[in-house]
Amino acid sequence: MSVDTAEPSEFSPRQNAVLEQALQLLVDGGEKALTTSGVARAANCSKESLYKWFGDRDGLLSAMIAYQASKVRTFERNGERLTAASLHDHVVIFARDLLEVLAGDVSLALNRLAIGQSNRDGSKLGKLLLERGRRQIDRRAMALIDAGKRAGLLRFADADEAYHTLYGLVVSDLHVRMLLGEPGLKDTARQAERAVTAFLRLYGTDKVLAEMPVLG
Amino acid sequence: MSVDTAEPSEFSPRQNAVLEQALQLLVDGGEKALTTSGVARAANCSKESLYKWFGDRDGLLSAMIAYQASKVRTFERNGERLTAASLHDHVVIFARDLLEVLAGDVSLALNRLAIGQSNRDGSKLGKLLLERGRRQIDRRAMALIDAGKRAGLLRFADADEAYHTLYGLVVSDLHVRMLLGEPGLKDTARQAERAVTAFLRLYGTDKVLAEMPVLG
DNA sequence: CACGAACCGTACCGTACGGTACGTATATGG
DNA sequence: CCATATACGTACCGTACGGTACGGTTCGTG
Q: Residue limits of the HTH tetR-type domain (chains A, B) (predicted)?
């Protein structure tokens, strides 16, 4: 395992603490609760400092997204020959992690925030969220899928297409439902297992299919 | 074909016109632009009437969702024996319609609105949107899937599970991406075709699989 | 025609937010 | 010990919104 090189955290420790408080405020009360005065009060700092550090309110929101993204680091595997069983397990773990990340309250709060602003500011926050928040998980999945192909376990022409298929199978409409306020999934393990089974049935080579239960 | 019985439109024609203007305002400028004064001005009505008709701002938002849902009517087929080819075609049409609905600017604007409010008001708008906006399309898909099963073309234990699989294959993360402001899909027809192919490969009986191209 | 209901347009009120200014405290460096 | 920088806390300003009140107008009805 190797961890991604964490860039030297574009913000000072004090600023990180403030951003942490701001995230907490956002999670608890939604965007309405995220006022500059409220952040200053919760973080015991002055509004003047907020504006000095982040420019304006939008700058603060962007900084919150960047900060949260900098906290989430995903591990990538290296070497380690894949078998049909281990590929299955790794994809299941990926699927579970994906569902867990999407269901996290900070993730949901930030997505709600960005979506709420997205037809006003030219989707600046939305872009930021997609680029900073999704890149890690995309890379991890692509690496896994590519490794499966190199090991002769998966077969596809377009890796991106295969990945999006996997994503859809795992997430379905759960993300939007959660964003709309529906309580989270009851059994994420089962959902992940089902999705991976379908994915392997679609993209697995004979080597993989031979080890899968007959359907029906 | 039979059209759903349209309930006598809980709002007066004048109120419908006002709601139409409000939707237009929301689409153009996002939630920030949807002020009570703005709606009154755009619709040439008084704020007093707005409050008389809809109670308060939240009531107006709810009414907008209800009104939009009442406009969308989906057709359900009846009778008409399904073949492998016609099932495929109908599912593709469903997939295309689904993508088209989700990509519609009014749909996106309302979803953004409901999502933006969803961690404040106990997701009242989110519930409303899911119940009033999704029921139609869910019913249509379930009817189609059930018909496929009765015709011996599809095989599954849980129809709901099969439907969610289809949904995920068709939509993947497109809905969230569009909500975040990413420009819409280039080739919805291709996306729909891919999804349906995968769906039939997963849930089709031999009768269906026999007519499908060998993969990869 | 007269009466009343519904409605429009506008003016108004209280509040709360984003952003700025200022006085004070703490700390760092010479 | 002083000087400078950084940041805290508070007070302040302008604006804009949700919601209410009121005078004038239209329109249906007896």
A: 12-72
Do residues A111 and A202 share a domain? yes
Answer yes or no: do B97 and B53 share one domain: no
Residue A2 pLDDT:
44
CATH code of the domain in which A25 resides = 1.10.10.60
Q: Which residue of B has its CA nearest to A114?
A: B180
Is residue A128 within 8 A of residue A66, CB to CB? The reply is yes
A62 and A84 part of one domain: no
Q: What is the pLDDT of residues A14-58, one digit of tens each?
A: 999 999 999 999 999 999 999 999 999 999 999 999 999 999 999
Residues A107-127: what's their mean pLDDT? 93
Q: Is A64 found in the same domain as A136?
A: no
Q: Do residue B115 and residue A216 have CB atoms under 8 angstroms apart?
A: no
Q: Give the end of a domain, one of B48, B68, B88.
A: B68
pTM: 0.93
What residues make up the domain containing A31? Answer: 12-68
Residue in A155, A171, A177 closest to B168 by CB: A171
Query: Which nucleotide shows the minimum CA-to-C1' distance to residue A31?
Result: C17
Rounded to a whole number of angstroms, the distance from the CA of B197 to the nearest CA of chain A is: 10
CA-nearest residue to A158 within chain B is B216
Residue B74 (CA) to nucleotide D2 (C1'), in angstroms, measures 80
Q: Say whether both A146 and A97 belong to one domain.
A: yes
Of B115, B155, B172, the CB nearest to A167: B172
The number of domains in chain A is: 2
Pairwise CB contact (< 8 Å): A123 & B216: no
> Within 13 Å and on the Cβ side, how many CA atoms surround A88?
17
Instruction: Please tell me which of the candidates B117, B179, B201 has its beta carbon nearest to residue A118.
Output: B179
> d(Cα B181, Cα B101) in Å, to the nearest integer?
16
Confidence of residue B92 (pLDDT cuts 50, 70, 90): very high
Q: How far apart are CA A96 and CA A86, in angstroms?
A: 15
In angstroms, rounded to a whole number, what is the distance separating the alpha carbons of residues A172 and B173?
8
